[in-house]
Each structure stands twice: as C-alpha cells, then as structure tokens.
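User: Fold both of these, please.

Assistant: Here is the first one.
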Amino acid sequence: MNPRLHRVGAAVAVALGVGMLAPMALAQTQPAAQPQQAPSQNQAAAHTNTGPAPTDAELQHFAQAAREVETIKQTAQPQIAQAKSAGDRTKLQKSAEQEMEAAVRSNDLSVQRYEQIAMVAQTDSKVRTKLIKLMQQPKPPTS
C-alpha cells in the first residue's frame, strides 16, 4: 500500500475524530490482518509540512474529496478482504488508491495539499471545527 495514502487517512481520522471520517482518507485499504509498517523519518517529516492555512474554498474541496474517498474506501475494503489471492488484493488496492487520488484531484486539490489540510486540522481547532461542519452538511448535488 502506498504509505502516503495511509498517512493521509490516519492523519484525517485523528484530526477530525468523527466516526464517519475515520477511514476517510486516502487511507488504508488493506485488510486488518496485514501488518502495518512503522512510519519512516520521511513520513514524519511530511507530517510537519502543513503549508499555508487552508482557504474556505480549500476546506470545502477537502470535505467533498473526503466524502468521495470514504465512499471509495467503503466499497473497496470488502472486495480487498475477499480477494482470492495476494495478486488480486494488490490489484484491488492499487485501483482503489488510484480512484482515491482521482477523487482528491477532481476536487481541485493535490494529494499533497489534501495531506497538508489534514495536518492543519490536527493542530488547529478552528480549522477542525470548520471541517466537521462541512462534513456534516448534506452532499451537494452533482451536475
């Protein structure tokens, strides 16, 4: 699994502390039985780079992307867990990761900026509160 995607999921889950958001991120799509890797120094360094404060528009994009990522993850997890082989599991994981990255990008965010906003939400209660409110709003209609 892409460590970057796992890191985002974990960061957002901790940052927001909201049950529906816990698996939201470009998060772990592995079955629970597989062991997790310890964060590397590079991953730890990435956690400290939060970039500029997110704008209200970025927070709205983040909330929408997070909803889409959550939907992808909820769909992918059972399929991955039921995969007949390690090869099938890997293919399903990669496919889900690509879909999650596409969901982030389709909401006008880079994966890096998505991660940065997640990290800001961990440390800034005002940003966290705004995100929680945005996440609780009904999903905007699609065009």
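And the second sequence with its predicted structure:
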Amino acid sequence: MKYKAKYSIVFVCMFLLFPPSRATAEEVVLLFNDSGYMPFFSGDPGSEYLQYNGHGMLVDFLDAFEAKYPQHSIRRILVPRERANRMITEGTAEGYALNSPLFAGSLSDQFTFSIPIWHTADAVYVNRDQPCYSNGEQLSGKLLGRIRGYGYGPLDDDLKSGRIRSMVVDKHEQLYRVLLANRVDAIVDNIHVLTYKTRKEGANSTAFRACSPALYEFDLSVFVRSEKKAFIRDLNTFIRMSMENGLLRNIERQWLGDFPPVSTYFDGTRKDEDANIQ
C-alpha cells in the first residue's frame, strides 16, 4: 500500500509537470469581425475574454483542423474591426481568422496568408429579365442598391460623384427585396453571401443573374504572424487535404446547397429550388 501511495504521488507530480498534449498545445489567437460574414462566420456576441462560439463555414473548418491537429489551440475572439486592428498592432493577437490579400494593406510584411480556403467574388446583380451592367460606365445614371458603410471598389468614385445613383439599405435581405420589386436597376453583393442569404430567406437566387465579369474576385485565407511557422505549415497541409478529400466541398454544400465554383458561377448554371422572396 505504501508503494502504491508513493507511485500515485509520483504520477500526480508527473501529470502536473507533463500534462496531456492538448493542455500544452500552442495557442494562436485569431480575431473574428463582430459584424460577421456569413456564410463564413456569424457575428454572435462575444468579448476579447471569451472564446467565440459562432457558426459558419470557417468555424466548421477550424473545428475540423483542431480535431486533426490537437497540438494547435485556436483561441477565437469576436471584436469590432477597430479593436481588432489595435490587438494586431499591440501583439495581443496572432492574426485574422479570415482575410484576403486584396484587403491586407501594409500588414503583409509581418504576416503570412495560408493558402486560399475559398475563392469568392463581388458582382453586380440584376433581375433575370433585365440587361446587365458590368462596370461604372454602364451603370452611369442607374440606381444601384447598396449597403450602408460598404465599399464597392471600382464603383466607389462613381458612387461618390453621383454618376451612379444609389439607394442605401442596412441589410442584405433588403437589397434582394428592392431589386425584386424593381425599385433599383441593380445591386452589388458577394456571390457566397447572396446565395446563403437568399437560401436562408426561402428565396430563389436564380431570380437574379450575376453580371459578368465580376467587379473583383479574391481569395479568403487565415492571416497569421509569420513566426507561427508550425501552425501555418499544418494549416496549409490540412487545407490541401480538405480540398482532396471533399471536406471543404461538403461544408460548402451544408451552408449553400448546390453552389458552383466561381469559374462557372457567371455562366447561368446555378441551381436553387427555393421559393421567391415575398
């Protein structure tokens, strides 16, 4: 009995000194914008002191990554953009959960993008029986539905000058309704967002058509400090694996249904069996 007690004490001491690998996993703090970006991630309430427990395609993907690589622990924090920028500058966070080289700016010198997880695009949409407008010149004098506070890249100067008139709304769902009601000539939206939002609303995304070419296409990746070499290496390996074994495609189907690659998105092959927005 004395030996057993002695060994038990030794075991407890070893457990405290050398806990299981998950307890000693390297933590990486990734920031989520609190406005959300569905279907990629939701803007559920949270704080910098609490683990973000939202949902979306990126959340499903990161859950699968952590299950495969328990040596990496991702602390997910939901914060406003301004606070996120401060945390990145101060070094209290390792990166953004989702970002694009198109929007990274000067931070690219200190950070590394994972290989792309998704490729997406922003496009001008019109009602299916209406003519398309693919640039600022064609939209000149037209009424464009847009979301308050959003930037629209190559259309921004024309919108600011008034060459393109605009109807400003607060939510994506409002965009689709004003377009279906012919209250605007066109809207601008992200192809993943529109597909998710209309599907959630019980809408038929094929009531609209995306004008070709897209305003711009961009990749979405995890954006993390370059010093996190092991994390970046394993994440890139897992992204490639997820493309090959169908995990990314299955996650996309769960949230978007039959969503085609961006390369075929603008050729009219989209399928959606939902009913029209009322």
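The CA atoms of residues 69 and 234 lie 8 Å apart.
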